[in-house]
Sequence to fold (225 residues):
Amino acid sequence: GNSVTQMEGPVTLSEEAFLTINCTYTATGYPSLFWYVQYPGEGLQLLLKATKADDKGSNKGFEATYRKETTSFHLEKGSVQVSDSAVYFCALTPTYGNNRLAFGKGNQVVVIP
Amino acid sequence: DAGVIQSPRHEVTEMGQEVTLRCKPISGHDYLFWYRQTMMRGLELLIYFNNNVPIDDSGMPEDRFSAKMPNASFSTLKIQPSEPRDSAVYFCASSPLVGELFFGEGSRLTVL
Fold:
């Protein structure tokens, strides 16, 4: 089936540090890939997406590249701010079929001033 | 433009009571989703609709849960009878395109 795996555990880092959150996926065909962000007390928001291999999604300084050869979609930001503290979810939808997103378990990111 | 609107934001009830959660999706979005989020199980899809028709309800935990979408601008999720293990944040989301979901702020349910 379709699934997404995110690295275990929260991520704590200092302001202006480089952030990487790993995401790998299992899917048949050519899924679309997404990163969602959830700020405290809010619902999830779409952060960025990529719909085909080698596409790079970007938004608010965050980037992720769809790597079919490694089945990965790692999220990166060069210089994080305290306001980036949130939970980040990787997700995919299958190429064909229904609109059922497969979400990863999420990673809590805490940025310390 | 208003986002997805959910009500109530918070609900505290006693075991055995009926709970109804409400959702108004973004106008023009063809898909509507109900999710449940807990610390233990993370984010779970309960059911989703396309053009008001339930497409996939395989995530509905049991017969105590039911969801309806009588028209394009309104949906309900009902739990009857409620149990303490139903305590969670319930999110409604709508979508104009596959994969691009717009979430409401959630309804936090506590069943005592």
Notes: The two ends of chain A are 41 Å apart (CA to CA). Chain A is about 0% helix and 50% strand. Chain A has a mean pLDDT of 93.
